[in-house]
């Protein structure tokens, strides 16, 4: 029996189409991207997280000479937020990435598989979906309404 699983997402041709809070998150993620420590890949990623209390926290990718010891912007930011505000729900996450010398044609940068798995953990924990936005420096933006949309057939604590 063939089954289908479709996701809905929103596409913004330009950040001018975003709401005020979304624009703020985009700006915070872009600022954070400037401080990425990415001397090996020269691929800079920034992330901004909006909590339900209205606070915004940001982070970026951190690389290491021993390559696997580095961490993506999403997990750097997510783990810091989870460590410091374990009971505060996450409402929105904005990710902006691209090569240090970016091009108009660089597409929006979606979270890697490992980050999706980490993000799902906290979405499940808080029993509330998270809006996730990803973008390139050319200001095209994709929004999904849940991390689950990026990771169908996800593995979580219910299987343990
Ligand atoms: N990276 C992120 O920070 N987030 C992503 O979603 C994709 C990749 C980082 C990891 C590494 O420092 C660099 O980008 C190149 O993969």
Automatic annotation (TrEMBL):
Molecular-function GO terms, alphabetical:
cytidine deaminase activity; zinc ion binding
Q: What is its EC number?
A: 3.5.4.5
Identify the cofactor(s): Zn(2+)
User: What residues bind Zn(2+), as annotated?
Assistant: 72, 112, 115
Look up keyword Nucleotide-binding and say if it applies.
no
Q: Which GO terms describe its cellular component?
A: cytosol
Q: Which residues form the CMP/dCMP-type deaminase domain?
A: 20-158
Q: Which GO terms describe its biological process?
A: nucleobase-containing small molecule metabolic process; pyrimidine-containing compound metabolic process
Keyword entries, A-Z? Hydrolase, Metal-binding, Zinc
Active site location: 74 (proton donor)
* Catalytic activity line of the entry: cytidine + H2O + H(+) = uridine + NH4(+); 2'-deoxycytidine + H2O + H(+) = 2'-deoxyuridine + NH4(+)
Q: Give the family this protein belongs to, as stated in its UniProt record.
A: Belongs to the cytidine and deoxycytidylate deaminase family.
NCBIfam families noted in UniProt? cyt_deam_tetra (TIGR01354), PRK05578.1 (NF004064)
Q: What does this protein do?
A: This enzyme scavenges exogenous and endogenous cytidine and 2'-deoxycytidine for UMP synthesis.
From the Swiss-Prot or TrEMBL record, give the protein name.
Cytidine deaminase
Q: What high-level taxonomic lineage is stated for the organism?
A: Bacteria, Pseudomonadati, Bacteroidota, Flavobacteriia, Flavobacteriales
